[in-house]
Amino acid sequence: MAITWATLKTEIQQELHDETDFADGGNLNYLLLVWANRAVRYIHQQIDMFYKLKTGGSDVTFTITDFSKALPTGFFKKSDRFTYVKKNDTVIPIIGLDELNAIDPNHNDTTSNTYPENVAIEGTKIFTYPLFAGTIKVEGYFETPTDMTTGASNPDVPDSDDALAQELIIALVLRKAFSHLLYDDKTAYYSTEAGGLLELYRTHIKKTDSKKVNKLVYY
Question: Please, is 150 exposed, middle or buried when counting C-beta atoms within 10 Å of its C-beta (0-12, 13-18, 19+)?
Answer without folding.
Answer: exposed
